[in-house]
Design goal:
The protein is α/β, with parallel strands linked by helices. It has a single domain, classed as 4-Layer Sandwich (Nitrilase/N-carbamoyl-D-aminoacid amidohydrolase), CATH 3.60.110.10. Helices cover about 25% and strands about 25% of the residues. It has five helices and 14 strands. Strands 5-4-3-2-1-14 form a six-stranded mixed β-sheet. A six-stranded mixed β-sheet has the order 8-9-10-11-12-13, with helices on one face. It has a two-stranded antiparallel sheet with strand order 6-7. Strand 9, helix 3 and strand 10 form a beta-alpha-beta unit. Helix 1 packs parallel to helix 2.
């Protein structure tokens, strides 16, 4: 674990681990990992995408693994949030109208255990020889921003990073931090893509990015928090662990004053 604090602001912990298809084991991992990260007293703990259950193999289905927003997995998140006094964001498969193709959903739970947001992944990973849309249903094209303390956090998932219009829509909706749980698949240059996109989304939007990724044999790891100048202020390598960093309203304002690129835009794009 590496840790570097910014002056003032809200402390975020990004957690790195690999889930499995054993949902009970994953729930126990959530309890343990949140408890470990909570020792650093963060206001937000970010867990990876698909923390409830891992993706199925190509040609398989996660339909039977899916749960409702009042199911066991969300119950564990809510209890952990209250027990440790921290908000939590984590990924799950949520039941949809199509029984065989649930949503890939991020849940945001407040420190009081209340559900404060749910984001259904818009951009499904139909790339690099994989077709996520065979297993999952895409969410509506709408930015989801939640408030935690005095700050606003925009939710996006993994492959969404490749579509800068979503991060811009989140920032236009008030997000100061982009929260990016992921299961970024390993492969040639994929780790480079991951770090490049995280940095680009921070710099082009002059905002923080907090990314929590799965690791192990399938996924790249490299969870990190990046500041509005594109500097990684906290990072985890390939192993299990977590990193914490503080986001600062003063730092955000300072960077946006020096680099007012959001104000200098000439194009306005409305998401389809």
């Amino acid at each position: 674990m590496e840790r570097l604090r910014h002056h003032g602001g809200v402390k975020i912990a990004v957690v790195q681990t690999a889930s499995s298809n054993d949902k009970a084991a994953n729930r126990e991992a959530v309890r343990r990992l949140v408890a470990e990260a909570a020792r650093e007293r963060p206001e937000l703990v970010v867990l990876p995408e698909a923390m409830m259950a891992d993706f199925a193999a190509e040609g398989g289905s996660v339909g039977e693994q899916a749960e409702a927003l009042d199911g066991e997995f969300v119950g564990v998140l809510r209890k952990a949030a209250v027990e440790h006094g921290t908000a939590i964001v984590a990924g799950m498969f949520e039941r949809s109208c199509d029984e065989g193709r649930p949503y890939n959903t991020l849940l945001a739970v407040g420190a009081d255990g209340e559900l404060i947001g749910a984001y259904r992944k818009i951009h499904l990973y139909d790339a690099f020889g994989y077709k996520e849309s065979d297993q999952l249903t895409a969410g509506d094209v709408a930015p989801v921003v939640v408030r935690i303390g005095a700050h606003k956090f925009g939710l996006m998932t993994c492959y969404d990073l490749r579509f800068p219009e979503l991060s811009r829509a989140l920032v236009d909706a008030g997000a100061e931090v982009l929260v990016v749980p992921a299961a970024w698949v390993r492969g040639p240059l994929k780790e480079h893509h991951w770090t490049t996109f995280l940095t680009a989304r921070a710099v082009e939007n002059t905002c923080y990015v907090a990314a929590a990724a799965q690791n192990g044999k399938k996924y790249s790891g490299l969870s990190q928090v990046i500041d509005p100048q594109g500097i990684a202020i906290a990072a985890v390598g390939e192993a299990d662990g977590f990193a914490t960093a503080e986001i600062s309203a003063e730092r955000l304002a300072e960077v946006r004053k020096r680099n007012p690129s959001l104000q200098n835009r000439r194009f306005t794009v409305t998401p389809r």
